[in-house]
Fold these 3 entries.
Entry 1:
Amino acid sequence: MHKKIEKSILLLSVLLLVNFTACAKPKQRAAAQETQNKTQPAINPEIEKLNRVLLSMTDRCKAAIPNGDPEEFLADLHRVLEVEKNFRTDDLSLYFLIDKKHSVGSDYVPRDLIPVKGNELWNVSRNDLSLRPEAYAALEDLSRAALNDGIKLLVSSTYRSYQYQEGLFNRYVKQDGLELAERYSARPGTSQHQLGVAIDFGSITDDWGDTKMGKWVYDHAADFGWSLSFPQGYEDVTGYMWECWHFRYIGKEACRFQKKWFGNIQQFMLEFLDAWQNS
């Protein structure tokens, strides 16, 4: 982290300062503000916005964010947002937040889906798979790198329509009951698969992460912009049980941002970006 005096306000310090001045009585708050103005450089508007957004995040998300220079955080954030400017404008952003609280309609279909057929780069478990162009290109890059290390990836699930997900979810409800089904299957309109940017690799079983293929993907996916969506121990955050096989394409810069500032938890990072852009 940077050690320059003019950048010495740490993210945690900013949060504590706001909490202190907000809870103080009017005279105390005025005195605290006056002391702040005399002893610290003025906080730029973006740091004030950062503070507001961070305060709006869940306690677990805030706990995952390491203490650090807010201007360094903002510089990394702007690199992520700069990448977003190059995303196609006729479809949802690759950073679009979709979860149990954020959804898309039954009529949403990603633009220009590309069929994912078995080829020299990867194997497939079925013949009706497809991805958004950006995710397809990233899958090609990931698969070439895997082949160079002697591993041929198996793609088992990709884009799912609203209607397909509806049928799948209803089937699981009949099989296991609503409470259990909601822990491992998304309701229609809330699945990352409907965005056309998510892949289930391999056997879609818990032991896949311990296979040679699974270990390789874990070690290298982020280098090609792929992020694990539902990590172990975060069901209360993501809404879903651990899925070692489910990766979402968000791009290399977002993967770096996620790892550096959000404990490498995709949900925290996407929730932050959504809050930032809507703040």
Entry 2:
Amino acid sequence: MTTSTKHMPVVAAIPNYNMGHHLRLLLPQVLERGYDRVYVLDDGSTDDSVDVVNSFNGDVHLVRAPQNQGCTANRNQIIDHVGDDELIHFIDADMDLPTPEAAAVAREVMARYADLGVGAVGGLVSRVDGSQEPYNYGPVFSVKTMLTSIPPLVDRVKERPMLARAVRLLGTPAANKWPDILEAPRPAEAYWLHEGNMLIYSGVFKAIGGYDPKMRNHGAQDIAIRLEKHGVRRYFDPSIEVVHHYIDVRGKKRRIQQAESIRYLINKHGYRFVLRGK
């Protein structure tokens, strides 16, 4: 697997909904990073996203849903456009991609973990101010880990190191399952990964049927549960970095969709799993 991974085609898959303005900035960056193919997965945008993609004269492939179907179903559009032995790099449309030769780095990263049975790797998601997002990866979805979800609290007081460290320690032992945003990011085994910057083998993605299209939020947790059941390990590695611009196209719908997705996730995997994490 390591040898084949080093020569595996790498496909950039960019889910998009009404982010045409930022696509104009992101796509030139992606096209310079050595990907074998670049796709924009459009979720029925009503802005100028289609015109933006078409302006690249065929260098960027447009895959368009006839109507908005949600972020998870949108990501699944890549399935029909990749073979069984390719590497998919999901990059959200409101990102910048500063990593030089990102496609080559992607191959190297996946080869690094191939012998460990790793099928998906999450990269570093940073903010415009240079800080790392507190949710680059996380532990199994359960009551225990959600109630000790320390990252947002640490993030709020990160400019006060002593207080931030004290807050993080309050979350022990669950805190060590989350990124330590007070330290430089380093590789770590993870349960779920930030889907805005994620590498996954196409064969693995196809085998589990992609994302659950019924979930408009928390798809990262659901796909991690299914990967775990298939014996596919996940890792976080900061070698590939994206910078998140936080373009919100859902507005007030976001909180409603988050609540609905949590209820669906619990019903799908059972209360025992959510209560015990297994």
Entry 3:
Amino acid sequence: MKLILLGTGGYRPNDRRQTLCLLLPEYGIMLDAGTALYRAGACLQGPELDIFLTHAHLDHVAGLTYLLEVARAHPLRRVTVHGEADKLAAVDTHLFANALFPKRPALDFQPLGAEPVPLADGGRLCWFPLVHPGGSIGYRLDWPGHSMAYVTDTPADPAAAYVEKIHGVGLLIHECYFADDQAEWARLTGHSHVRPVLEVARRAAVGRLLLVHINPLALDDDPVGLEAARDLFPATALAVDGMAVDF
């Protein structure tokens, strides 16, 4: 099973990273719709696309306005955007307001319910709340023999309720905006710094950890100080745009 990380950055794109957009091309499942969404046309395999939003902040939804371009490269007969009802309403009302974006793409909005979302090949998707200004949610996707979780825009905390929800997944994609020397900024903005993220992965007994939602102002090769903290959870890597991961 393949996951393509179309975009791995946070807040705004820079010359190395577009903002978050993850794609399971075999199933037409996308997690968040950041500025990297324009790359999806070259990767999609089928004619249907289900986009699951964590929340409605612009760096996670701006790519919805790029769907017109994606559909020209890869025609789509159905696009459904899933998320919490109030976040979907905000996107529909404001992002696609005529004064901001005059040509609404052909898509439908589907609020998430309490029950898991069934996926092809016996899979299912569950969501869980996260702590973030304005609210956010995380996702867990399970198939027989394969599992992953996606957690972004929240302060990492090994005692947080979401850790139980992601326990035992084969692959954890978790935000890590800051290095440890910026822990106070992480607390103030509702984001994560590196050591607590690795502690979450260890507590949740996940197979592998990939760090995303990287600070666009940090331009060196180790923007979050991973090498100094890797001993906490050695099976950790810093995600980069275009990375393809089998899980």
